[in-house]
Amino acid sequence: MAQASKSASPNDRIQFAIIGIGMQGSGLLPNAISLPGATCVAAADLYEGRHTLAKQITGNPNLPTTRHYQEVLDRKDIDCIIAAVPDHWHMRVVVDACNAGKDIYCEKPMSHTIPQGFEMAHAAERNNRIVQIGSQRVSSVLCRKAREMYHDGVIGDIEMVELSLGRNSPTGAWEYPPPFDASPETIDWDTWLNDAPKIPFDKYRFARWRCWREYGTGVAGDLMVHLLSGMLYTLGWNEPPRSASALGGIFRWKDGRNMPDLHTVLFDYHGIPVYVRLSLAGETPELARFIGPKGILDTSGTYIRYTPQTGADDGPSYYASSFPREMRDQYREQWHREHDPVPGHEPTADDTTYEGHDWDDVKPHLWTFFQSVKSRQPVAEDAVFGNHAAIACHMANESYFRKQTVYFDAEAKSIKA
Q: In 34-185, where do the E strands start and end?
């Protein structure tokens, strides 16, 4: 095991390196350097254009950049890593970082396959490293408020969860424009493929890798994992589902991709049904709905809405319409006598809405990570948590491709049908 880098004191500055400055990394980097005490001292990417971008973002024309991320891990002056690389690179980067004694913030989903997730979690534990996965809402004030409300019992024991999100645009469906200068000269294509099948250079696969199973995990790993991570944190669960039943297909984006653009899944979490609907062909609001006997908790990007429910009739039962007239009149008179409020004390609607900072802002999540690197205190979305959320996404994809319900075998750490 590599010698771990020294733990920083709470008053020390954090010196970090970033691996991957693509779409997500180019957003993480400016947010990270805007936080007090955080400095980017190196950047790694397989595309030369992103070396220039990293220098532009940091305002440091002399920022050390490289195609070889291992050079970054070998540096003793680097406290931690931010990694925003394609899914099929997550395990290699995280395991190498942990073995090199570096704490690491890795984008979601944690893994590309189920075995990889367990290997990553083991590397974090073996090396005593802070690993935080990048479903940022877990560090948001709104998610924390929803968790507090649920555990205060506002809706009672959870009975069902509904999660949904829809997009309707080429960019939303990952049809990203490749860099104008993308070529085998500017991109280390053979290295980028990693353990995926070797194919000739393809600038579209480089830019739109989420569309293919060989490199990404589809809408499950891009969108579902955010919804599931927020759900797990809100409810205080930290486990994979027992089963997943999926339906979907490629309905609109017939561009050669092999991942569905519509994915619906019904999960079983220890007997609690969790329904997820994701679409790249219909714009719908993002919503996480928690349903219990005492009410409903709707959460979204900038608000929480609590709608209480008494669970009581608000009028005589319509079943009484089957009574003979005299009996029906007697029943209704009795009902009103026993249930009508005293005049002037009629009930009012008491929905409660909390508005807050956008739970998709990455800055609070990066702050949580940097503080943990300093204090050595654990994070909520650690490698175990991240692995459990990723397992659900892998089960959703496996059910879709196998066209049958799949189950998680916890003892064998694998999916079975």
A: 38-44, 65-66, 80-83, 103-106, 131-133, 160-166
- Asked whether the beta carbons of 44 and 67 are under 8 A apart, the reply is yes
Which residues neighbour 302 within 8 Å (Cβ) at sequence distance 6 or greater?
142, 355, 356, 357, 358, 359
How far is it, in rounded angstroms, from Cα 247 to Cα 262? 8
Q: Are 299 and 140 in contact (CB under 8 A)?
A: no
Give 74-102 pLDDT, tens digit per residue: 999 999 999 999 999 999 999 999 999 99
Give the percent of the chain with pLDDT over 90. 94
| C-alpha to C-alpha distance for 36 and 416, rounded to whole angstroms | 47
Residue 7 confidence (pLDDT) above 80: no
Look up residue 141 and give its two tokens.
């004030």
pLDDT of 39 strictly over 50:
yes
For residue 93, count other CB atoms closer than 10 A to its CB: 23
Q: What is the pLDDT of residue 18?
A: 98
Distance CA(417)–CA(409), nearest Å, equals 10
Burial 331-359 (b: 16+ CB within 10 A, else e): eeeeeeeeeeeeeeeeeeeeeeeeebeeb
DSSP per-residue string spanning 12-40: SPEEEEEE--STTHHHHHHHHHTSTTEEE
Residues 49, 186 contacting (CB under 8 angstroms)? yes
Instruction: Using the predicted structure, report yes or no on whether residue 375 has a pLDDT greater than 70.
Output: yes
Q: Token pair for residue 371?
A: 């503080």
Task: Round to whole Å and give the CA distance between 79 and 102.
Answer: 6
Number of H helices, E strands in the chain: 13, 16
Q: What is the pLDDT of residues 142-164, one digit of tens each?
A: 999 999 999 999 999 999 999 99
Domains of the chain are 14-138+362-382 (3.40.50.720), 148-308+352-361+390-416 (3.30.360.10)
Residues 6+ apart with CB under 8 A from 202: none
Nearest-angstrom CA–CA distance, 89 and 17: 17
Category of 233 on φ-ψ map: left (φ > 0), alpha (ψ -120 to 50) or beta: alpha
Specify the pairing of strand 131-133 against strand 103-106: parallel
Q: What is the pLDDT of residue 67?
A: 98
> Residue 11: pLDDT band by 50, 70, 90 thresholds?
low
Residue matched to tokens 């994979």: 240
- Read off the pLDDT of each residue in 333-342 and give the average, rounded to a whole number: 95
Question: Among all chains, which residue has been given the structure tokens 């060989």?
Answer: 214
CB 262 within 8 A of CB 248: yes
